[in-house]
Amino acid sequence: MLQDIEKSNLNISEDLILKIGIHRGPSIVVTLNDRLDYFGQTVNIAARVQGLAGANEIFVSSDAYNYPGVDKVLDNYEVSSEHTNIRGVSE
Q1: 89 part of a folded domain
Q2: Is 30 contained in some domain?
Q3: What is the DSSP letter of 73?
Q4: CA dist., res. 72 & res. 77, Å (int)
Q5: Does the residue 80 lie in any domain?
Q6: pLDDT tens track for 30-79
Q7: Considering the entire predicted model, what is its pTM?
Q8: Which class for 60: exposed (0-12), middle (13-18), buried (19 or more C-beta within 10 A)?
Q9: Is 75 helix (H, G, I), strand (E, B) or coil?
Q10: Domain residues for 43?
Q11: Cβ(49)–Cβ(77) below 8 Å
Q12: Interior/surface letters 32-43, b for 16+ CB within 10 angstroms, e for the rest
């Protein structure tokens, strides 16, 4: 996605900046106004993980990173690790 945004930015006057946060876990899904919407602690954590990312960064929670196969997908990318506390989350 970041590579596609970078290419797209070549054709527009004001750059689109993407900040991505990825987390995994259960959530509640409902249909509102003919659209799916997601609720629950997993969604809240994903939003907070996204809030940690800077412009053109992807932050991934340890729950998502440790999911089988994710490490192989990320082999060709520079990945750094840091531990941080997320507001409202005890673990």
Answers
A1: no
A2: yes
A3: H
A4: 10
A5: no
A6: 998 999 999 999 999 999 999 999 998 999 999 999 999 998 999 988 89
A7: 0.79
A8: buried
A9: coil
A10: 18-64
A11: no
A12: eeeeeeeeeebb
Q: Is the pLDDT of residue 27 over 90?
A: yes
46: its two tokens: 């994903």
What residues are paired with 67 via a beta bridge?
none
- 69 within a domain of the structure (yes/no): no
Nearest to 52 by CA among 15, 3, 86, 16: 86
Helix, strand, coil content of the chain in percent (nearest 5): 30, 20, 50
Radius of gyration of the chain (CA): 15
Tokens of 59: 């932050």
Q: What pLDDT sits at residue 85?
A: 84
Burial class (CB in 10 A: 0-12, 13-18, 19+), 46: buried
For residues 61, 40, 55, 17, the Cα torsion angle rounded to the nearest 10 degrees is: 140
Answer for the pair 40, 27: CB distance below 8 angstroms, yes or no.
Answer: yes
For the chain, the domain total comes to: 1
The token duo for 33 is 């106004």
Checking if the pLDDT of 91 tops 70, the result is: no
